[in-house]
Amino acid sequence: MLRLLLGEQPRQNNGLLEEAIESMVKTSQLLKKEMEKNEDPTHDFRKLEIWTRGLIVSLDELEQSWNAAKHFSRSVNSGYVDDMSIEEQGEYRRYVYFYKNGFIRVFSILDKLGTVLNDLYDLNTSKVKEHFSYFTVLRQFKFLKAHGELSAELEAIKERYKTPMNKLRKRRNTEIHYMNSEMQDDLWQRHQGLSERIELEDIGSHLDELEQGLEMVCQSLRASYRYTNQMWAKNGIRA
After folding, report:
1. For labeling, which of 1, 178, 186, 195 is most exposed (least CB within 10 Å)?
2. Residue 80 pairs with which residues in a beta bridge?
3. What is the pLDDT of residues 43-86, one digit of tens each?
C-alpha cells in the first residue's frame, strides 16, 4: 500500500521476508484444515489462525514502515537541523514518523509472537509475569526445558542481533515512556553546549539498525512457525 502512495512498484517478497510469510501461511492453512475437520468446538484453532494472520499483516506493515523511512531519508541531505529548508524539514519529519513506527512495530510483533508461542506450547508465562514480553517467553522455554530445539534457535537469533536490538529497545522505551526519541538526541546535544547547532542524527545507521530489527523479526517468525509446522506434521497434521 505505502509503495503505491510513494510512487514505487509493489514489493516482490523474497529472502527472509518471503520465508517468514510462507511459514505463517502454511500454519494458517493447517489450522483451517483442522477447523474444517474437527469443527473447532473450543475455538482454539480459530484463535491461533486469527493471531497468525495478524502477524502476517504486522510483518508487512513493519517492512513497509522501514521502506518508507528509507524513501524519505533520501531527501534529507543537511547535516544540521537549522540548515534544512521547509521542504527538507517536511521530508525529515516523514522519515522520523515511519522510522519510529518501524522500531515500535519490531517489539510489538515480537510480543505478539510471544503470546502465540506461550499459547501453542502451554508455557504459562503469565504465572511468572502477568504482562509478559517475547523475551520473558524465551526465558520460560529455558526454565521449563521445553522444546529445546526451538528454544536454542530463538536464543541464537536473539544473541546474533543483540547490539542493534538493544539500541532499538532504548529508542522504543524513550519514545513510549519519556519523550520523542529524536528530541532526546537534541537534548543531549544542548547539554554539550547551549550555543552549538543541533547536528542531525546518523540516519544511515538508524536505518541499518531498523533493517536488522526487521531481519531479527523475520528469522524469529520463520523459526517459530517452521518448528510448529514440523511438529504438527509428525502428528499427522498436514495441508
Report:
1. 195
2. 199
3. 888 999 999 999 999 999 999 999 999 999 999 999 888 899 99
